[in-house]
Amino acid sequence: TTFQDGGEEVEEGAVYNVTLKKVQIQQAANKGARWLGGEGDQLPPEHTVRQYETSKIRAIKAGTLEKLVENLLTAFGDADFSYISIFLSTYRAFASTRAVLELLLDRFGNLETSSHGEVANLNSLESEMVLRAEIASVLRAWLDQCSEDFREPPDHTCLLKLLHYLRNNMPNSDMESKVQNLLKQFQNQEVETVDGLCGPSSSDLVDGEELEISNPEEFSSFQDHVVAEQLTYMDVMLFKKVVPYHCLGCIWSQRDKKENKNLAPTVRATITQFNAVTKCVVSTILGTKELKIQQRAKIIEKWIHIAHECRILKNFSSLRAIISALQSNSIYRLKTTWMCVSKDILLMYEELSEIFSDHDNYLTSRELLMKEATSKFANLDSSEKENQKKSQKRLQLQKNKGVMQGTVPYLGTFLTDLIMLDTALQDYVEGGLINFEKRRREFEVIAQIKLLQSSCNSYCLIPDQKFLQWFRSQRHLTEEESYKLSREAEAAADTHVLSPKSQKSMVKRISTLFLGTDVITPPKEQPPKISPLGGSSGESTDSASVSSCEFNHSETEDVCMTPISSPEDPLKKGYDSDKGSMGSISDKGSGSDKCSALDKAAGCDSGCVSDLGSSSLPCLSPRVLPVYNRQSGGACIIRVSMDGINDSVYKSILITNQDRIPDVTQRALLKHNLEPDAVEEYELVQVISEDKELVFPRDANVFYGMNSHVNFDFILRKRA
Questions:
Q1: Would you call 93 exposed, middle or buried from its count of C-beta atoms within 10 A (0-12, 13-18, 19+)?
Q2: pLDDT for 559-618, tens place per residue?
Q3: Residues 367 and 440 in one domain
Q4: What does the pLDDT average to over 328-346?
Q5: Structural domain of residue 160, as residue ranges?
Q6: 22 by DSSP, 3-state: which?
Q7: Is 69 part of any domain?
Q8: Of 439, 465, 483, which residue constitutes the final position of a domain?
Q9: Cβ contacts of residue 391 below 8 Å, gap of 6+?
Q10: How far apart are CA 615 and CA 419, in angstroms?
Q11: What residue spans carry the region label Disordered (predicted)?
Q12: Which of these three, 456, 483, 510, is where a domain ends?
């Protein structure tokens, strides 16, 4: 079979891509060979005759809504066999369920008046039967693949319209029964709230139930594989409920608008669970002040083992949540505690972290996810022999159970891809036609999500009510609380049993292990990180998709380890690589801000989770991550305080070489829980010295315009 580009065909309201498919249908011996008694498949090519058939494949490239709906009925005739699935998975980006259903049923599916319709002159019973079959095929696919489209409480008008159509045109059909059952199911679930979509993983408590400080003994009583299985159980229940069209870039990117607070609830539920796991890790490590160094190190080791169990279960969502928490600012700065973590566990941690390396657009995690998407069990490789033995032993136990495993992905990867596609490709082409090529590209990502959702049916996990109750009852620490407890724990550890000599050797061992150098003390601007793969808060390009809890910017929301992206982020709408100009140097006014004592003591350890406001972060080497006071790989971290409002409190923000003043200002306002729409009312200023500052023009590129030879400390000040 060979394919040849046949160009384009243009009709009124539609443009088609044409492909010519050449297929060999027969091979026979020529006359001379037949006279000799030879057969075609036993003779050399010069003695055979091949017959080919060329067929035309028409795939709609762009069209009006009417043409796209009409194409649902003719796609099979044009040999565009995937069109129906693509349309049903993506049409919510440009039309409503009601609009499509009315076109399909009233304009093209009215069997009584269809002889005057646009599809064809249906004057015969045979033609009517063909149309009836085409309509039934589309409706069946719609109900099977996208039944959530018809959930419109409390009236369910579209479902009732469909039921009325089926009763009149296809009475007593199996589809009529299916619609009736679906309507009853929706009506019975009307009392279900958006929070109910969180299922067993919701961190909300029952009335009268109190939040508890994490009890280390109770947490230690749960076996590692039990915790991993329960986290996987919660993740599976949520991921299977994700409605694919909720992930489309044009929908998900609008989530921050006030009127869209209930938009994409199934995706928000997975974010809530991801953040709950991350916060749980932090609270179990820091929640109890009385813990000794070795006890705290044991909890870290336990979480690394749990992460490894998640890897065996192919649960990449909780795996990433745990790794992000361990790489968060308040945990990775526990230098003395990390020194007490065994070498084998540290190596395991490093290998797990490498899965989410942002090198080459997260190529490692993408390849691994696709490799294991439909495999029965995890494919475990370890460079450390002892870890390899443990992994194979645990994996063998899983195989002995004889139950296949699914795969739970980190959803943020797909969300970011869809946002990128939505940014890069136009919604409409010349003539105002809907760009359906864009929807075909989006469906490639949606299809992967559906495939993984299907694989999750292979899991056979039983909920452990004791663990679920413990997990939901955990009191999560705020950002300030976790940082304060981290400093207290580290200060107590500094005066503990470790002698200066042993401490020096411990630091040297960790430096050699992870930094590939014998340097004992890193520069002040870059605190030692236990893993070279995570930023101070687990920054990632995916954070534009999986962001902080429900975006209401309260103090408790800031704890989330996945950074928040600003609403209406210009980077999501397009890229501008023009370099900004340098601002002007002026004398610093009386509103000068100083770092707090906490910030000074911490060096570059900002007490805030870094903000990643863009999904267009450049691919960074695992060894060259964005840090405070250093520009590397087209990105860096700056600290921004508000002039006159908590001026001693800095918020860390990650910026890239794409960011201009409005982008950074908007994110800074969000981080300080202020109205992000007031961008024009503020100016951004870099502190150069006690008596000098750098004032940026309104549209300057911050990355290129800033002074990289002084501290990356900024002030957001109201314009005079």
A1: middle
A2: 333 333 333 333 333 333 333 333 333 333 333 333 333 233 333 333 333 333 333 333
A3: yes
A4: 92
A5: 64-110+129-188
A6: strand
A7: yes
A8: 483
A9: 308, 312, 380, 382
A10: 8
A11: 518-548, 560-591
A12: 483
